[in-house]
Amino acid sequence: MGQRGEAGQRAVGVRSITDDEGRGHVLAEGGGGNLWFKERSPADAFSAWQPLGVPAAEAPHDDWAFIYMWGTTGPGPLIDVVGTAGNTADRAVFHRSRLAPGAAWSNWIRLPGDDDFDGDIVAAVDYEGGLDVITPIDNTSQGLGLAHRRRGPDGTWTDWTAIGCPPAGFNAVITPLLTTGSDSPKGLELFGVSPDNTVWHSAQATDGGWSEFASLGSPGT
Hints:
The chain is mainly β. About 0% of the residues lie in helices and about 40% in strands. It starts with 6 loop residues before the first helix and ends in a 6-residue tail after the last strand.
């Protein structure tokens, strides 16, 4: 039997993390809002579940529990994990990383200033090695918008900045998609769906900001 809350016994959410050599690792949320990581080796064998846990409680008996999580890799073997979490008094976004296979994970660090998140969280690494983290926020007059925070290649973090949204905002039940591999200046593309099921697109600019959203139309019409 696994430990109580172990992902292999009582997982409630799972993500895949593909590294720069094409190996697929697994990030899972287990009981109590704890996160777990299972690594695939070059020999294609999986490790035991590695506990990533939750951030340290800021008050006695007021433990954090993750709500949503995301993992991404690069440059090289670096793995970044981000998640939205809550306790009885607060909500926050957290991050931790691992530099290379077998290396220790960093402590969970809080990315303050975005407790208005509303929905899932996504992250991706750009061509320069910068990490972009995006969460939906429900604080715009147009409805659901997006905010992002960026860790530059030098390791410094920006503040949370609103990206904007289509005229009617975003659909609250469809997670935005952040992906690499485009011909945009830094290689990141962002896709989202508005309440009328139209797909919208934005590209990351040279300064790390984002272009205005352009409509890609509605599938099937």
